[in-house]
């Protein structure tokens, strides 16, 4: 049995599955094989929105990974209902690992009303049966745990674990396949433990982005960067472009980039090297000696030969930028262990709001553009899982007319024979929008069943124009379409098969944001935490500068790289035009939006800007504005921009022993209308608390206003300062926005308008009467 993978390499033979045959795991130098078909990637509809860190232990050549139910694609407990109901879980195995042992710990409960000799749970992996678990009467109705050893030979790159309930509640031939007694629930306590051995990959740039990013791996992407302590802004910018590239690839997996001064052991890493900054222990003679220009090379990690080190080299920082631009734009043309870069054209500047990860807002968007595979829009069964469509849009969309978001939905389904409880429910972000009853098959739909059976059948189609309430929509959304096709029974012994129903959302369905303007109130850290706005307004970050301390620590550099990794995740594009400067060069970027690392000299910059900030951490004390938060009104973006009545009542100066980190947003003191978002903390190492919070969806949901304070596991979002407005609205719309914030003015305006209309009508009718009387 041979495991095939994408790119040009074939998995080792089956002997790699045995710990006694580890000699088979080494790749011969230059070994290549023709590309072979690989299983499709995990569909976006089954991916969790955010993947928590997997419990992993490792030795030199082996590792143990514990995958949770959520990490295998389940959004929560798995509910199995009916005679024959199944759910699929998705498991990926990295290109540089081979499974040597696997154990599934299945935690489940089931109905006590079953006929137990006929009921069981069937488990398959890639269509191979791995176990059948009998359901015993004595354990019914309570949580049961079973551990199943899985033959590692069944694992490939992309794997599908299928859990199927086969259950009966009566020995009668008259059995309702959807009876309420037929149930089993798979608990989130279910885990899959994989023992893996490392495969030594060849030093070939054609493998990129593996092993630094592997699309088979659902875990967080963690790639150490090797940077010199005195790295200048240009070097940090080059590293930031690489981090944003990996962040764009990682997407929902999240990404983190710790910084080291020497090559770290036990991990794949990326080193940025000039002749003056070669890390200790790194010998470049095997790939490029001396450095003769922009070069990208792949070599064994000298601290761990079974790992890889990607070396981005140049004679100066400008050549490092050229090399990294070639890496993120031209990796498809790279091969061998080293590539010399002659020149790179990074293309035209991006237009506002054209980020690849965002849905276009200048035209209706087809659903086929929002899913990686149209198959993700189809489901089977009478009560299937929801069809999920992810949708990211700019955070500043605004409609001053308060209309809905137009959704033109087309769908098909197996039609019920009569009107019953078959419905389609449309949700967005787990909030119900509309629910439609599915109509039965009309007689005119089935007129050619005999003569042309392939052109007709029992599938009905329908379309609906739905208005999604604007306040239900944010910058990062998920639309859910839940079909329920009810069975129809006309007698005691009449039943319907459970697996014949089909339903699909047409890929030509559309959602349209083209009528909305770009206008919003800032600062709003909810926009930043969910989509990077306003920095991501230009996907290449051409109007953004990252300001780092003059002498940044490894933690400061990690914050820079991780934040740019988030920018790549939010836009789907490397930050090719971002600027990185130390605080001493702040005036050179005064016309840009600023992302500031507020430690060291960065903290001194914040202190200079002073009491206009909602929070100031300096010299061991914390100074914060005070305000009655009950007066604040949080506004959703499409619901409209509303003035928050800012009523600060004072300012407090505190001195506390506990650690505090914060995100602070405010209008740039250097240029009106520009935004500053600063990361600040009572201790430099506490900046990592902000990075941790940005990877936690529960904590991201608490970020808002102009100040987010992070104290261990507690996150508080506050609005303490004044708002300013950015965007483009017609003059009459601006007047309406301002006036609509004051209901009393609207009432007076309505009375005056009514009086003007009444007087005009009175005058017009009087003139008409006078003309008639004169004639």
TrEMBL record:
The chain crosses the membrane at residues 745-765. The keyword Coiled coil does not apply. One of its GO terms (cellular component) is plasma membrane. Gene3D superfamilies: Galactose-binding domain-like. The keyword Membrane applies. Its main location: membrane. Pfam families: BcsB. It is a single-pass membrane protein. Keywords: c-di-GMP, Cell inner membrane, Cell membrane, Cellulose biosynthesis, Membrane, Signal, Transmembrane, Transmembrane helix. Residues 1-31 form the signal peptide. InterPro entries: Cell_synth_B (IPR003920), Cell_synthase_bac (IPR018513). One of its GO terms (biological process) is UDP-alpha-D-glucose metabolic process. It is found in: Cell inner membrane. Pathway: Glycan metabolism; bacterial cellulose biosynthesis. Binds the cellulose synthase activator, bis-(3'-5') cyclic diguanylic acid (c-di-GMP). Belongs to the AcsB/BcsB family. Tightly associated with the cellulose synthase catalytic subunit. This is Cyclic di-GMP-binding protein. It comes from Cupriavidus oxalaticus. The gene is bcsB.
């Amino acid at each position: 049995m041979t495991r095939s993978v994408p790119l040009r390499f074939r998995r080792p033979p089956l002997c790699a599955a045995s710990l006694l045959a580890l000699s088979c795991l080494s790749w011969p130098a230059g070994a290549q094989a023709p590309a072979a078909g690989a299983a499709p990637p995990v569909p976006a509809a089954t991916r969790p929105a955010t993947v928590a860190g997997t419990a992993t232990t490792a030795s030199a050549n082996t590792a143990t990974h514990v995958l949770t139910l959520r990490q295998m694609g389940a959004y929560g407990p798995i509910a199995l209902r009916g005679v024959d109901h199944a759910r699929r879980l998705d498991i990926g195995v990295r290109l540089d690992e081979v499974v040597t042992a696997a154990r599934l710990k299945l935690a489940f409960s089931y109905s006590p009303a079953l006929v137990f000799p006929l009921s069981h749970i069937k488990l398959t992996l890639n269509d191979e049966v791995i176990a059948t678990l009998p359901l015993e009467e004595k354990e019914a109705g309570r949580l049961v745990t079973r551990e199943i050893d899985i033959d590692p030979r069944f694992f490939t790159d992309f794997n599908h674990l299928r859990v199927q309930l086969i259950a009966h509640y009566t020995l009668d031939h008259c059995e309702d396949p959807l009876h309420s007694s037929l149930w089993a629930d798979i608990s989130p306590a279910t885990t899959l433990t994989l023992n893996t051995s490392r495969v030594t990959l060849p030093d070939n740039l054609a493998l990129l982005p593996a092993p630094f990013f592997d699309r088979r791996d659902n875990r967080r992407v963690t790639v150490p960067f090797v940077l010199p302590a005195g790295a200048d802004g240009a070097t940090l910018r080059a590293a930031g472009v690489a981090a944003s590239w990996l962040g764009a690839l990682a997407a929902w997996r999240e990404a983190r980039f710790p910084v080291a001064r020497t090559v770290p052991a036990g991990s794949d890493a990326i080193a940025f090297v000039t002749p003056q900054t070669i890390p200790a222990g790194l010998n470049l003679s095997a790939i490029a000696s001396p450095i003769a220009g922009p070069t990208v090379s792949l070599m064994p990690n000298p601290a761990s030969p079974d790992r890889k080190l990607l070396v981005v080299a140049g004679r100066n920082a400008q050549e490092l930028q050229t090399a990294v631009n070639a890496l993120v734009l031209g990796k498809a043309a790279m091969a061998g262990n080293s590539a010399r870069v002659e020149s790179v054209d990074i293309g035209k500047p991006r237009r506002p709001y054209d980020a690849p990860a965002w849905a276009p807002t200048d035209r209706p968007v087809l659903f086929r553009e929002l899913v990686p595979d149209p198959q993700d829009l189809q489901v089977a069964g009478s009560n299937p899982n929801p069809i999920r469509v992810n949708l990211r849009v700019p955070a500043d969309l605004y409609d001053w007319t308060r209309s809905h978001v137009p959704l033109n939905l087309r769908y098909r389904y197996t039609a019920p024979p009569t009107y019953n409880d078959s419905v389609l429910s449309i949700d967005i972000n787990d909030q119900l929008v509309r629910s439609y009853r599915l109509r039965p098959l009309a007689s005119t739909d089935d007129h050619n069943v005999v003569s042309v059976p392939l052109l007709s059948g029992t599938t009905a189609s329908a379309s609906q124009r739905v208005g999604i309430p604007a306040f239900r929509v944010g910058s990062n959304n998920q639309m859910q379409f839940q079909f329920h096709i009810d069975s129809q029974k006309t007698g005691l012994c009449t039943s319907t098969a459970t697996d014949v129903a089909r339903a699909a959302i047409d890929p030509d369905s559309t959602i349209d944001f083209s009528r909305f303007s770009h206008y919003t109130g800032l600062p709003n850290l909810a926009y930043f935490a969910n989509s990077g706005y306003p920095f991501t307004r230009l996907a290449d970050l051409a109007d953004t500068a990252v300001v780092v301390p003059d002498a940044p620590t490894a933690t400061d550099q990690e914050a820079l790289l991780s934040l740019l990794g988030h920018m790549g995740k939010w836009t789907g594009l490397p930050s090719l035009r971002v600027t990185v400067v130390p605080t001493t060069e702040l005036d050179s970027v005064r016309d840009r939006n600023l992302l500031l690392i507020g430690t060291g000299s960065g903290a001194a910059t914040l202190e200079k800007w002073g009491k206009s900030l909602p929070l100031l951490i300096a010299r061991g004390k914390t100074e914060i504005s005070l305000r009655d938060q009950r007066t604040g009104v949080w506004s959703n973006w499409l619901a409209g921009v509303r003035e928050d009545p800012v009523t600060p009542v004072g300012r407090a100066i505190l001195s506390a022993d506990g650690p505090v980190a914060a995100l602070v947003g405010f209008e740039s003191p250097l240029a009106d209308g520009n935004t500053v978002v600063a990361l600040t903390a009572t201790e430099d190492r506490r900046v990592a608390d902000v990075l941790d919070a940005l990877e936690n969806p529960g904590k991201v949901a608490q970020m808002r206003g102009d100040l987010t304070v992070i104290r261990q596991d507690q996150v508080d979002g506050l609005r303490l300062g004044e708002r300013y407005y950015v965007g483009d609205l017609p003059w009459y719309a601006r007047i309406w926005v301002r006036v609509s914030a004051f209901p009393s003015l609207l009432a007076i305006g309505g009375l005056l308008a009514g009086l003007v209309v009444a007087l005009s009508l009175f005058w017009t009718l009087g003139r008409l009467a006078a003309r008639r009387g004169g004639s």
